[in-house]
Amino acid sequence: MHTPRLTLFVGHYGSGKTNLAVNYAMHLHRQGKSVVLADMDIVNPYFRSKDSEQELSALGIKTLSSPYANTNLDAPAMPASFYGIFEHRDSYAVLDVGGDDRGAVALGRYVDMIKEENDYRMIFVANAHRALTPTPEDALEVLREIEQACKLPVNAIANNSHLGEFTDADTVLASQAYVDRLCELSGLPLVMTAYDARLDAQLCDRVAHPFPITLQKKYY
User: Fold this and answer.
1) Rg for the chain (alpha carbons), in Å?
2) I need a labelling partner for 187 at 20 to 30 A (CA). Which of 70, 86, 124, 176 fits?
3) Which residues fall within 8 angstroms of residue 150, CB to CB, at 6 or more apart?
4) Cα angle: 143, vertex 169, 95; to 5 degrees
């Protein structure tokens, strides 16, 4: 299966897209690919992919982020280095986009370059247990708002349903009908079911497209 050069993770607040972005960058690295991870979150200064910068750097994964990341001066400013992701196509890029439509606005300035290259996958990260999107229809509304904000269509779904530290195998299994319905409503394929790697023995043969992940240290 073709691996797009650009992988973008979008979703609602609390969906866990940042953990997915970090883990997916590591996944590509294990495949022998040169990888850069771009922290494009202009909304949440407290929990972001930059928190894993040291760990990623040790693996040889380059990270890019706003100069205001992890400060109380977080602002909608993107460094000029972000343009290099799209102008130079010698690395695979993983983009952690800010939550909901507000965070997706920052992506808009790069959309023409993304469309011109036409080698991307924008993954909507769904969490069936998030209180503000209790139904698949609610999640679809958020997905459409993100598309409208950044002017780029989502083309895949990831199931990252969790209840934080209370997540167990049943938490993930209970989400499958929700995510199946979201895929049906949106017409988009499910490309991964993410869960804590400690649950892998219980889930790897019971979910579609299993993607065990390790959680960022700050998550704990």
Assistant:
1) 16
2) 86
3) 10, 97, 104, 105, 107, 108, 111
4) 35
From CA 67, how far away is CA 59, in angstroms rounded? 22
Place of tokens 């205001």: 68
d(CA 47, CA 44): 6
DSSP 190: E
Whose tokens are 């920052």? That residue is 106
Residue 130's alpha-carbon distances to 15, 89, 133, 140, 193, in angstroms, are 7, 36, 6, 13, 16
Single-letter code of the amino acid located at 114? I
Cα separation, 196 vs 77, in Å, equals 32
- Contact between residue 36 and residue 63 where contact means Cβ atoms under 8 Å apart: yes
pLDDT in tens, 28-40: 999 999 999 999 8
User: What's the CATH code, domain 6-219?
Assistant: 3.40.50.300
Domain assignments of the chain as residue spans, ordered by start: 6-219
| Paired tokens of 93 | 């890029």
Rounded CA gap, 105 and 174, in Å?
Answer: 32
Instruction: Return d(Cα 207, Cα 179) in angstroms, integer.
Output: 11
pLDDT, tens only, 165-188: 899 999 999 999 999 999 999 999
Q: Is the CB of residue 140 less than 8 Å from the CB of residue 186?
A: yes
pLDDT score of 102: 81
Half-sphere exposure of 170 (CA within 13 A, CB side): 1
